[in-house]
Design goal:
By secondary structure, this protein is mostly helical. It folds into 2 domains: 124 residues, no CATH class; 138 residues, no CATH class. 70% of the residues lie in helices and 4% in strands. Strands 1-2-3 form a 3-stranded antiparallel β-sheet. A hairpin with a 2-residue loop joins β2 and β3. α3 packs parallel to α10. The protein is globular, with a radius of gyration of 23 Å. The N and C termini lie far apart (56 Å).
């Protein structure tokens, strides 16, 4: 194996080869995940997980100078654990176990070649791969239903405030004689998964203290609710006053636009904390008095 902190072409070849072998050995499950990502809007975060992981790894590429590859027996152990978990999930028809198992197999292949030090150095990028797992249906309902109810209630109040006559029955908003179901006009779960990944990418892309990262991650559900309402209000107005085709277009475009709004809100929270003089920078900044 390579000497300390020294990278060789054989290391990269082993890393790529073992990772591809791990993926190929579980290819039917990977193909199932990709099919879910392309056919289920509720699991659209799957398509963003790998790019986010690559981005976070690229931001930390400088750490490779401080730690090099080193064989680790924890890798084969993780591979065996992942394979057992996938088989157990197959036997019990537990999808989350199957999906978590194949990700563990792939991570085990990487760990075998890279070692613990490198894996820890790139931990945020590895954690982003957890978003490759589709959200279980039961968990999705537990999150989506309350979010839809809160969004419908707040959206009705906001529309009433601006003079639009809106009636509400549960998650159903009635405007201009048109019934708009919140679950159809703006399914909160479709945004929660993507926004959770976006929040994760933001807090680990911007240098900040760990306490601030935790605070922003805790605040991310509020950000998701705000952008959900921002998307819902014009969507409801569009379905109530415009043609269905135009309303559908506004619905689809706004779904991507609010992701940018979420980044703006997270950045605004960071600036607000800085304005309140909350320590943000991970390392103290030395201030030197100018020479007289």
């Amino acid at each position: 194996m390579s000497r300390l902190n020294e990278w060789r072409s054989v290391d990269l070849a082993l890393l790529v080869g073992l990772t591809l072998l791990a993926v190929a050995s579980c290819w039917p499950v990977w193909r199932e995940i990709f099919s879910i990502a392309t056919h289920s809007p509720e699991d659209s975060q799957i398509l963003l997980a790998a790019p986010v992981a690559v981005w976070l790894a690229w931001l930390r590429r400088g750490r490779l100078r401080a730690c090099g590859p080193s064989w680790s027996w924890f890798g084969p152990v993780l591979i065996i654990f992942g394979a057992v978990l996938e088989r157990a999930g197959e036997a019990s028809a537990t999808e989350i176990a199957r999906h978590a198992g194949i990700i563990a197999v792939a991570l085990g292949a990487m760990l075998t070649v890279l070692g613990v030090r490198v894996m820890v150095a790139f931990l945020p990028a590895l954690l982003a791969l957890a978003f490759l797992m589709p959200v279980p249906g039961r968990l999705r309902q537990q999150i989506a239903v309350p979010l839809q109810e809160i969004s419908a209630h707040l959206s009705q109040n906001l529309l009433d405030l601006f003079g639009f006559a809106v009636e509400r029955s549960g998650n159903l908003l009635i405007i201009n004689g048109e019934q708009v179901a919140v679950a159809e006009a703006c399914n909160g779960m479709r945004m929660v998964s993507a926004l959770a990944l976006l929040s994760f990418a933001f807090v680990f892309s911007v240098p900040m203290r760990h306490q601030v990262r935790v605070l922003l991650l805790v605040a991310s559900p509020v950000v998701a609710l705000v952008v959900n309402i921002v998307r819902l209000v014009p969507t409801v107005l569009a379905y109530g006053h415009l043609s269905p085709g135009v309303a559908d277009l506004i619905h689809d475009v706004s779904g991507w636009a609010v992701l940018g709004l979420a980044v703006v809100l997270l950045w605004g929270l960071l600036l607000l904390l800085r304005w309140f003089e909350v320590p943000i920078d991970p390392y103290p900044v030395e201030r030197r008095e100018s020479a007289r």
